[in-house]
Write the structure tokens for this entry.
Amino acid sequence: MVAGAGIPVYDVPFVTVGGGIGSFVTVDYLRIYGVPTSHIRILSNIDHPWQTYQFLTRVSQIPIPERIRSDSSSRPDNLWGWPSYALEEAWKDKNLGHLWNVLTEPLLNDYWTPRAGTVFQNLDREAKRIRYWDMLVKGQVRMVRRRVGGGYFTILTPPEGAATTKRVAFRSRFVHIAVGYPGLRFLPDLQEFREKMGDYQHVVNAYEPHEHVYEFLKTRPGTVVVRGGGIVASRVLQRLFDDRRKFNLQTQIVHIFRTFVTGSHGPHIWMRRKGGDGWAYQGFNYPKSVWGGQLKAEMRRLDGAARAQKYKDMGGTNTPKRRHWQAQMREGRNGSFYHPFQGTVDRVERGQDGRLVSYVRSKDGTLRQPVSDYIIDCTGLEADIAEHRVLADLLQNSGAYRNPLNRLEVERHFEVKGTASGDGALYASGTATLGGYFPGVDTFLGLQVAAQEIADDLARRGFCKKLGPVRSTAQWFKWAFNSQV
Amino acid sequence: MVPTLFGRIQTRIFLLATVGVLITLAIMPLVLAGSGLSLGERYMVGFVILATVTVLGVVWEFIYHFLMQFRWEKDWPSLFGLITLLNEGVLVWILLSAEVVPFIEVEVGAIPFWIHFLVVWIGIWLFANGPMRVPFIRWRFRGGRLL
């Protein structure tokens, strides 16, 4: 039927849709397991796997020399996680301080995290080594559908002029979907303001370019309202504090937390997270053991409501307690230019002088109406997965369904439940699968956990050979000497 | 590290039986040089101490696992893995001095004991914090379980 419609069909056993870090990590595993490049195609609208990640980190205030929030041994370019980033930076900088930090974290030091630039450089090296670009096919993926004879069709629109037809189809036994964040979602009151006023300049999301806010504040004293209690709020505050000091500015910062954490919190003594001054403190996106320890093992056994409850117990917005940030906030509170408080915003309106008025209600009944020049939404809300056309189509036409957190329900080995087709399988990883048997999906290490499960499942199905200790060691040496696979 | 209870126990037994045995084989003749013991006796001392650390270690792991429950992250920082050599080493030394460790008929001096114990401990700790992941790619995602 597809060929009958005049759509050219290409046969390849494994297709990954997305082309971001999720696709990269999965393909890296498969190449190291021994799958040749001719058996893999990466369908993507971006040129290199870290492109979207780099954009999002840059606008949310992590430029290349800054450090990301990721563990030293979460290396998307190295499936073994050794040598860690800290060991590499110690070697390159000839500085044992990095190792001392890793040794004493998180007890005497903040968690050590790698520079964004280090991550990108290494991804580039590994992408070349596994011949990533030999497998990349540019275009916009329209849909993935089950094929009558088993396996799947993936329909792609190539860039204009790149192909003779408007669409091409890939016929494959396996498909992997890692399309990343379906989109941003704004807080309802901010969305309403933006739409009603047609103003996309003064109310911004931290994940969209908003450099003009910082530029404005350099020209005259101003007030900024920051919303949210996660790491992006921390980053934005850091930028505001840094600029304030560097350019001698008089910026006033109003920080509204919906949930204002005042201390340790949690259901019982064995499940209590530290917090204070509004924030819940945690080194990484999740408690560390979701990537391999106790929480990972516990979640793997849970379904339905019990799983949703476990997510709730360990969830909640949080940020690392970094000494530098603590000092800046302390200085801000003492100097009366940083004003954090609890509140929910009923609405935002434009005042008579053209500035923004937030109508805030606190739990204790206090009403506040802070006036500001800008509002930065740092809540990091994500759009529903059905906002992404490929995922929406899967839910509608291919038997996929939602998990207790309303995302894609996947098996423990990341096969999308309900989508099997003959001897083929459809896998998904990344943020679209949050709420599954494994919680840390939208992180570097989580993508590696998923990739390993997928590669091992493919090995069980005879698509590749499982990687045992001897072959693994041999492959590690190849990685170490940067020899191409 | 983010171990589970069974992961801890398996990792401990595996590492003592591999890295621990290799290090003991390599250093025991030197550690007890000048003690007047035969090579067989030196190895006997080394391996019995290794076995003692393993058996007591299983009990220690239950204690560490319990203490870990007070940590929100349910992790076991690298530094803990290193400094627990103090409590474990002291306990083995006390038992050795009290002559309740079986199969050791000779007197072992404090210096040889601590040299052997420290070299084995640090060797295992270094191996577990990195190179272990090279042959065993699933180990770190399974809380330290090998089986």
